[in-house]
Each structure stands twice: as structure tokens, then as C-alpha cells.
Amino acid sequence: xxxxxxxxxxxxxxxxxxxxxxxxxxxxxxxxxxxxxxxxxxxxxxxxxxxxxxxxxxxxxxxxxxxxxxxxxxxxxxxxxxxxxxxxxxxxxxxxxxxxxxxxxxxxxxxxxxxxxxxxxxxxxxxxxxxxxxxxxxxxxxxxxxxxxxxxxxxxxxxxxxxxxxxxxxxxxxxxxxxxxxxxxxxxxxxxxxxxxxxxxxxxxxxxxxxxxxxxxxxxxxxxxxxxxxxxxxxxxxxxxxxxxxxxxxxxxxxxxxxxxxxxxxxxxxxxxxxxxxxx
Length: 280
Known about the structure:
Layout: H1 3-21, E1 24-29, E2 32-36, E3 40-47, E4 52-61, E5 64-65, E6 69-75, H2 83-101, H3 120-124, H4 132-142, H5 147-157, H6 162-180, H7 183-198, H8 202-212, H9 220-229, H10 232-245, H11 250-256, H12 271-279
Helix pairs in contact: 1-2, 4-7, 7-8, 10-12
């Protein structure tokens, strides 16, 4: 496919997002396709030698547009390009455009409800399991200063996204309590995590063992604190996860650079359960 045809295909797939964000085409010549709005300009530049498509943007402030900076690069070989590739490439570009230029509406968080927790009685009786919403609710009850952050997470994604909340906000508090908290604070933290892990879904068990406590990265002092308060059921998976997270491998690289957010599908596989079963 010729480059001008590729740009046309990308333009068609970007049309809806461009319209929503007020972008209009300003150039489609040679190896460049660019769009501008009141907030800035973004352009796609193709290098014929390397077959690299660069996504570059510049912001407009007080009517003045600044210098372009390269945000990301994609491999784009015209010889292998088709409509399927056009949709896939456009989707990646859309993620960048929305991340950089989409203005989030201000929301009164006082009117946003916290995620609802499953009742302790129902969880203990096996009627229903604790889920990630339960974890969010209990975490917010234990640390009220995070309630607005949890609500904002729900507003941003339409549901509570635990990986994002804990990696960006919650884990710092958890690690601080493990490292520097007094015994009462540490006991409360692990009691809450232990209860949810014990009677939780596969998903929430993975969040606790991998996303949260995996951040201890097998630190001896923190693991000693965890061992003091963890239940036997949670201890096995947490230790196995920390053996992995203490090393620089493909698992830790994925944790450091998670894939972009997409509406989630419920997982049928649980790393925490797998590791736990191996210990038994």
C-alpha cells in the first residue's frame, strides 16, 4: 500500500476521535500527516528507511504552539499494511491522543459513591466472595485520606481499577506502614488484607499477592513484618511472588510496564491460587 493510501486509511479511523477533540487535518503531504486543534498539534511522520512511524505532538499555550516532541514510535511497513493494520495502528494513536489532549470533566467527588464491599458474614459463610470493590472499600475505610483518590479512579475508568490505584497511590501507603508503622498499624493492615485474601475471588487474591505485597520485592525486613501477621494461607503465595519480584525478569518488566487499560474480562486463572496449591 502506498504511503498516501496508508495516511488516508489512518485518517478515516481517526476521524471520530479527531471530531470529538476538535482536531482538523492541516497537512497530508510526503511522509507527514498532521492535525491541529486549539489545544495543540499532533503529527505522524514516516521514515521510509527504517519503516518507523513517529507520533509527535506540540501544545498550544496562549496562542503559541511549542516545539514538537516524539511521544511514541511504531513499526509500519507499507508492504504489509492493510485495513486490519490501519485499525490497529489507529487504536494505538487514539490512546495517545486521548491521554495527551482529552480534558477530563471536573466531578464533585462528594457525590461519587465508594465501591461497595461484600458483607463479612456473607463472605465468611461462602455465600459470595470478596472482590476488588470490597478491597477498595476496606482500604478506604482503613485510610480515609485515599477515599477521594479511589472515587477519582472510578470516575476515570467507569469502575475501580485496582492495578492503577495501588501502583500509583495505595502501595506507597502499604509499604510505609510495613516499613515504618507501629505494630497496631501493621496488624490492622494485614488483618484487612488477610480477610479479603482468605475469602476473596481469584482476581482480588492476585491483586493482594502480586500487585500490592509483591512490591516488597523480598526485602528481609519487610518480609519479617509480613510473616508476623500473614495467615498461612496467604503466606505461601506472597513468598513465591516475592521471589519473582525481587529479580529483574519478564514478570517484573510486565508489572513495571503494564499494558494500556482496556475494559477487563474476568480472569479464570489466578497466580495466587496456583502458587498456593503448589505449597500444599
